Amino acid sequence: MIIIMLGAQGTGKGTVAGLLSKSLNIPQISTGDIFRKNISEKTKLGIEADKYISKGELVPDNITVPMIEDRLKCEDAKNGAILDGFPRTIEQAEELDKMLRKMEKEVNLVINLITPKEEIIDRMLTRRVCTNQDCKATYNTKLHPPKVEGICDICGSPLKQRADDSDPEAIRKRLEIYDEKTSPLVDYYKKQNVLKTEEISISINRMGADVAKDIVKELKND
Ligand code: AMP
Question: What is the 3-state secondary structure (H, E, C) of the chain?
Fold first, then answer.
């Protein structure tokens, strides 16, 4: 089963994808996490990707598309995967369709998360991530703080703010790119009859864990 997480930055894609991955036993493939791991390890790919990520721009397709194709071919993804952060443009969605066809797979479900913009910006500014790249737990200093300030509850490593979350200009740019380049994917997948839209917001008391629980229930009842 191939599941795609769609939605602007800060809507909770990573949280929902992580919970679905555990319940459905298929890997969460996050392009952002792969890039950040490469940046912290100072690989060639990481150094190249960082030029774009630090400015809030998209990493070019000649880097991103082969990277995701290689990852989808890994043994742990043979029964499917949850794609978190890919595709981000119509061109990437078309490339994904092509590579899945070659693997005799298809996109089965696209979860489109929506959250009011003010809440999104607040969540990006208050998001903290574990610096241990094998843990990558995410916290929020307001909604879901760690037990000890600045320390990961799970592995004890220090937490930090993502570089692109602390720069208001990079945040603005990422949201602008989402509106312009990624949001057309909603229609793209609506036409393929695989789109499911879910609102995540404190105002309706519905957070990522609630959405993941309902989706797992629906998938298991099918
Ligand atoms: P994320 O963790 O999903 O917010 O991604 C962090 C950054 O990685 C984005 O702002 C982009 O610079 C880059 N990135 C992640 N996924 C993609 C993608 N599918 N295409 C191009 N750039 C990406």
Answer: CEEEEEECCCCCHHHHHHHHHHHHCCCEEEHHHHHHHHHHCCCHHHHHHHHHHCCCCCCCHHHHHHHHHHHHCCHHHCCCEEEECCCCCHHHHHHHHHHHHHCCCCEEEEEEEECCHHHHHHHHHHEEEECCCCCCCEEECCCECCCCCCECCCCCCEEECCHHHHCHHHHHHHHHHHHHHHCHHHHHHHHCCCEEEEECEHHHCECHHHHHHHHHHHHHHC
